[in-house]
Amino acid sequence: MKPAFTIPVPILIVDDLPENLIALEAVLRRDGLEFIKASSGTEALEILLKTEVALALLDVQMPEMDGFELAEMMRGSERTRRIPIIFLTAGVTDRSRRFRGYEAGAVDFLEKPLEADILRSKVAVFSELYVQRRQIAVQRDNLKTFAEENLRLLKDSRDNAQALKEADVRKDEFLATLAHELRNPLAPIRNGLQILRMSPEGPRAEAVRGMMDRQLTHLVRLIDDLLDVSRVSRGRIDLRKERMRLQDAVQAAIETSKPLIDANTHSFTLDMPDTALWVEGDLTRLAQVISNLLNNAAKYTSEGGDIRMNVKPHDGQVDIEVIDNGLGIEADMLPRVFDLFAQADRHLDRSQGGLGIGLALVSKLVEMHGGTSRAFSDGSGTGSTFTVSLPLVDEAGGAIGKPLQKASKTAHPLNVLIVDDNVDSAQTSLWMLDLIGHKATVAHEGAKALEIARDLLPDVILLDIGMPGMDGYEVCRALRQMPETQHKVLIAQTGWGQESDRQKAFAAGFDHHITKPVSLDLLTQLLADIAEPKASPTHTAQAGEPTHG
After folding, report:
1. Is 44 inside a domain boundary?
2. What is the DSSP string of 252-263?
3. Are 242 and 279 in contact, with CB atoms under 8 Å apart?
């Protein structure tokens, strides 16, 4: 028994006598063959308009439209002209009739009564050819799809290669910019140290110290921006949203950016409604957004330029516009101005400084607040307008949190143990604590710190994390196990400032977590709060970062 065909093979049988249709189907029946029967030429044409067939078996002598006419109609249509046709006839088959049949497109001409084996053999041949054609068509389509997919992959590969090439160029430019920006504040800091070493109390000492403080603040800001953009890109920043007055964020931003605006002798005007504008936001992060826009305007505007900020509520949202008459932005740069490291492309001499991440932070933080960021400029030398839009919310009660205020020398001195393997860091921390009225003792390793803590019983232990041997987490856990120190206030003072680092510190038993370099104002306020008799310690984070309880 011959195997069935791998795909269904449709066979069209056309005969005006129903008994002939039944007989032909019975003779040819085989697995894989599907028989479609028509009793007239017209019915056959209707079937062929809808159905593809492998072979047509046509009776010659039919009323209205005979087999020859049907064959000619089939040859006249692009859809059916290639269908093999076998004529079946019970009439006289002279040469003229055969010639007409082959002229109409027949591949064979069989006389009735039919020899079943011959008919089955011929049907099998054309059925196999049909299956092969279909398989070739499928392979052709697969090859076409494969070729198209290869072309797409090749294009994607080329695009990715180009993107990697551009990213590599951007990385090199960024690293060069980063080195430049880090050296800028480090150079005057080092010069200031040399000056103070030669003349610690000279007439320039106070000015030098102020300069060093400003440069160190700038250096910390650069590092914080790098950390922030990394956290935002990985979705690791948690906003502490609350209903707040937008005016509070605007004022905080202006206080932060005013020194840079004044240093460049810019004029600054603010147009903002007195009526409270309520938004759902993180005060610190929104202040950072607005400050970044103001700093950007100050850096890219020549000395003596004009900077304006307009705060305009409308249609359930508020627009914050920062407008300058500075260097402007080229048209090809506008779509990329909020991209990471875009500054490297903006000014070839990089004379204005910056890492090109401030505006990227603006865009991402605004997006996290449900808002949008836009930039506009008519081109080089025409100034720029940056607009941030935020959704407004209904007014709500409750006070908005206020930033830490600078604290004065404490009236309640504390006994503090400083634990840090970095000798310079420990010594400068001791001097800072002495200046604000606290007594401090230093230990440079974990085991020694446990001995001193047991004997000294300090009020507060300021503990570095990344120490060799016994790290800060281990020391913290050991202190919590000692009866003498288990209830003491433990502060993690570390260069590790990610959210996971803070959580790990609190899990180890720390009460507070502050990142290096530590702000004197923050440390002063924190120790003042601890010294208050009624204050109860709660987890504290570096200023500008979330607090975790």
Report:
1. yes
2. HHHHHHHHHHHH
3. no
Domain around 30? 9-114
pLDDT in tens, 357-389: 778 888 888 998 999 999 999 988 899 999 999
- Same structural domain, 462 and 520: yes
Mean pLDDT calculated for residue range 394-411: 47
* pLDDT tens, residue by residue, 442-489: 999 999 999 999 999 999 999 998 888 899 999 999 999 999 999 999
Which domain-ending residue is among 114, 129, 159?
Answer: 114
Alpha-carbon span 206 to 458, nearest angstrom: 34
In a domain, 230, yes or no: no
H/E segment holding residue 465: none
Which pTM value belongs to this model? 0.45
Average pLDDT over residues 423-439: 85
Helices 18-28 and 116-198 sit at what angle, rounded to 10 degrees?
60
- Residue burial 431-455, b: 16+ Cβ < 10 Å; e: rest: ebbeebbbebbbbeebeebbebbee
Cβ atoms of 354 and 181 within 8 Å: the answer is yes
Q: Is the pLDDT score of 356 beyond 80?
A: no
> What CATH number corresponds to the domain at position 315?
3.30.565.10
Cβ proximity of 333 and 345 under 8 Å: yes
Q: Tell me the longest C-alpha to C-alpha distance in the chain.
A: 133
**Is 521 inside a domain boundary?**
yes
60 assigned to some structural domain: yes
CA 429 to each of CA 93, 209, 466: distance values in angstroms, whole numbers, following the listed order = 118, 17, 16
Of the residues 391, 407, 434, the one at which a domain ends: 391
